[in-house]
């Protein structure tokens, strides 16, 4: 597949710009995310009919179909990566729970039981179309640690090369509240980056971004967003449906990650998945704005949470903002929080403004002894290994390089 910036190849050799809906029918590799709200019945149980309906649409796209129209590059079939919520919902019935649990331990138990059920349902549904699925459970850590995301990337590439539909969810049973994505929206955007998707489709219970809460009389769907700043004034809430997590807020965070990385996004309701994939006027289309960035920098910029804050003096802020320098111990005035070497941290200027994010080379136990000292002095006193950068330039992403809102 051709991962190219700002567009996807059509079979006529032309490029469907990632700034228009033409990118959807032309996309060779698509990440589709379906939220809990679209997979859950009012009683909190998994909606198997909705799951099968989605699989029918996705399988048709994988197979390629005349229905795509003769001018469509994807008629030879596309690769689909599915990011699906629904594990907790699928665990309610088997565990005999009266309602969807709210406490973390019971949610983890429900997700543990439900994830198996969920994948079994997808396995059956895709098998009806002669397709196999492969379960991939990710944690936020998998998107931060270089060794982990490289593993995830390799595994997803192999699944796709084997013609398998990867089915991704967060590894809910083992993730703690602090380390969780919680919503699957950002996970989907990061997965889209990981597999270098040509497009991301976010399926939910509302047919797009509205110019205000959709329940408000007169609220209208916004069909096209050229850049996210155009919708900066739109009121969105973090409260989703009864079962969803993160509401429209996490969807717009996902949109920021994907579009900033050169991947166009369609946000619509699950029932309109086929229309969205065909490039029809449904939901909201978000044009790609940025160019594809390196995996490493994207992971650092969008790490699920930072473990600490490193305070810089003015000189260090200037050096770091210059874009070429690493952060040295001499420019650090204070470290806050508990973190290990390799954890993501925020870099903060003397005015309290966040300058950027980076992977810190020392743990919070070691760092205080090094602060304000020159690397030369550190080497003299503490020996080799202590004369290195606090955050190496390659592990550092500046704030104005655009990280999550
Ligand atoms: N401006 C807005 N436009 C559209 N939907 C919005 C907006 N603000 C808040 N929402 C809410 O976001 C909800 C979708 O989020 P959520 O329930 O988390 O979905 P999912 O489970 O699919 O991830 C919608 O039901 C809608 O009520
Ligand atoms: N990972 C959880 C879903 C988390 C969640 O609710 O996400 P979403 O519906 O995308 O807002 C599950 O499978 O139940």
Automatic annotation (TrEMBL):
Enzyme type, top EC level: transferase
EC number per UniProt: 2.7.2.11
Subcellular location: Cytoplasm
Gene3D superfamilies: Acetylglutamate kinase-like, PUA domain
Residue ranges of the region described as Disordered: 1-20
Domain called PUA: residue spans: 308-387
Keyword Transmembrane helix applies: no
Protein name listed in UniProt: Glutamate 5-kinase
Native source species: Myceligenerans indicum
């Amino acid at each position: 597949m051709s991962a190219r910036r700002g567009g996807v190849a059509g079979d006529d050799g032309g490029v469907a710009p990632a700034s228009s809906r033409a990118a959807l029918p032309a996309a060779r590799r698509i990440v589709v995310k379906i939220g809990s709200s679209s997979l859950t019945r009012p009683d909190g149980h998994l909606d198997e009919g909705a799951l099968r309906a989605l699989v029918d649409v996705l399988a048709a796209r994988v197979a390629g179909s005349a229905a795509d129209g003769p001018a469509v590059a994807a008629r030879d079939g596309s690769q689909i990566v599915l990011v699906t919520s629904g594990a907790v919902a699928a665990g309610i019935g088997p565990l005999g729970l009266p309602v969807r649990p709210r406490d973390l331990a019971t949610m983890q138990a429900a997700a543990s039981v439900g994830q198996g059920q969920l994948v079994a349902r997808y396995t059956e549904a895709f098998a009806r179309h002669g397709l196999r699925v492969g379960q991939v459970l990710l944690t936020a850590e998998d998107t931060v640690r270089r060794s982990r995301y490289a593993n995830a990337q390799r595994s997803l590439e192999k699944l796709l090369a084997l013609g398998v539909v990867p089915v991704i969810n967060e590894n809910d049973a083992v993730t703690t509240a602090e380390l969780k994505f919680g919503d699957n929206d950002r996970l989907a955007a990061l997965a889209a980056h990981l597999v270098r998707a040509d497009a991301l489709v976010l399926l939910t219970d509302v047919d797009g971004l509205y110019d205000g809460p959709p329940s408000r009389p007169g609220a209208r769907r916004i069909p096209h967003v050229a850049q996210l700043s155009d919708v900066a004034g739109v009121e969105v809430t973090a409260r989703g449906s009864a079962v969803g997590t993160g509401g429209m807020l996490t969807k717009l965070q996902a949109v920021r990650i994907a579009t900033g990385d050169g991947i166009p996004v369609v946000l619509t309701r699950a029932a309109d998945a086929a229309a969205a994939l065909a490039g029809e006027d449904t939901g909201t289309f978000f044009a790609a704005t940025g160019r594809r960035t390196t995996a490493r920098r994207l992971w650092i910029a969008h790490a699920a949470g930072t473990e600490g804050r490193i305070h810089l003096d003015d000189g260090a802020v200037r050096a770091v903002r210059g874009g070429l320098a690493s952060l040295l111990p001499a420019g650090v005035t204070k470290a806050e929080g508990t973190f290990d070497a390799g954890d993501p941290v925020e870099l903060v200027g003397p005015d309290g403004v966040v300058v950027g994010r980076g992977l810190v080379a020392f743990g919070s136990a070691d760092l205080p002894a090094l602060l304000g000292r020159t690397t030369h002095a550190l080497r003299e006193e503490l020996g080799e290994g202590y004369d290195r950068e606090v955050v190496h330039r390659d592990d550092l992403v500046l704030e104005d390089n655009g990280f999550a809102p």
